[in-house]
Specification:
By secondary structure, this protein is mainly alpha-helical. The chain has helices at about 40-45, 45-60, 75-90, 100-120, 125, 130-135, 140-145, 150-170, 180-205, 205-220, 235-240, 245-255, 265-285, 290-295.
Length: about 300
């Protein structure tokens, strides 16, 4: 009788089956709802692009320059010198006030940020027409990324302002905590105007030439840069905050150099800035589809 011995089977040496690749996310490009002014989810997904564009503008601005970041404060300082000499001394507006140069610099610094941000945002679509016509991305990224260089200039300028305050022996007060609020309202106003102008310039290039002239006139229409609020009557002071740059520039200087914050001026200018931002986003949203065709 034959006995058969069954040996245990060898373990399965075959490699495990490879896992199927994870499905790639599907991006659907289609018309946005008419009620939606800004797609925050889309902007957040493109935040890396915004950062890269802003960093590119900053690096190009100071590339191959001898004085480097010193050029960031040249516009504000040169304007301060002009106002100090012609208005402060010849015009006797700063007569008896040894801190008048510091007073003017506290106004020209935020104005330089506002004007450069509006100009950069207004020309952002036209300056990046190669991207607009070839690649899909949220077009709103371009005017927002244009704020990178003005923000760096403002930060460097604030360092110079604090150094001059130490030179003059001026000690910052507790109102300094309101500086970010004033800067945020000023950025809000610049964003509203810049976004609106960026769409207008694409549609009609005449606005590009009017932009520089308009900013020059706007500076003189913001008298808190070079004049003290006490110079004006109560009725005039009630109307000046309708200029969206007036309230935040006034609060910016008051928060650094001391003095009571004009809550009325800051609040009214903030409301006007929100309205401008709404109008700018609305017009940008309605004309965004035609940018690649008419730019």
């Amino acid at each position: 009788m034959t006995q058969t011995t069954l040996l245990p089977s060898e373990p399965d040496l075959a490699l495990p089956a490879a896992k199927p690749p994870a499905p790639r996310p599907i991006t659907r490009i289609g018309p946005k709802p008419r009620w939606q002014l800004v797609d925050l989810r889309e902007l957040w997904a493109a935040r890396e692009l915004l950062f890269q564009l802003a960093r590119r503008d900053v690096s190009v601005r100071f590339k191959q320059t001898i004085f480097g970041f010193a050029w960031a404060v040249v516009p504000a300082v040169s304007t301060m010198l002009v106002f100090t000499v012609f208005l402060g001394r010849l015009g006797k507006l700063g007569e008896g006030d040894p801190l008048y140069p510091l007073f003017v610099l506290g106004g020209t610094l935020p104005w330089a940020f506002f004007s450069s941000a509006v100009a950069a945002a207004g020309n952002s679509l036209l300056n990046n027409q190669g991207l607009v016509t070839k690649v899909y991305f949220p077009r709103l990224i371009l005017p927002l990324a244009a704020f990178g260089t003005p923000a760096v200039d403002l930060a460097i300028g604030c360092g110079l302002l604090f150094a001059l305050m130490a030179w003059y022996g001026v000690v910052p007060t507790a109102g300094l905590v309101l500086l970010p609020l004033a800067a945020a309202v000023l950025a809000l106003a610049a964003a509203g105007v810049g976004i609106l102008l960026s769409a207008l310039i694409v549609a009609q290039r005449d606005f590009r030439f009017l932009l520089g002239l308009g900013l020059q006139l706007w500076m003189f229409a913001t008298p808190c840069i070079y004049l003290k609020p006490e110079t004006f009557s109560d009725d005039t002071r009630a109307l000046l905050p309708l200029n969206p740059a007036y309230g935040p520039i006034l609060a910016f200087r008051q928060s650094i150099l001391g003095g009571p914050i004009d809550a009325y001026a800051l609040g009214v200018s903030a409301l006007v800035s929100v309205l401008l931002l709404f109008v700018g986003l609305l017009y940008f949203r309605r004309t965004e589809r035609s940018f690649a065709d008419v730019i």
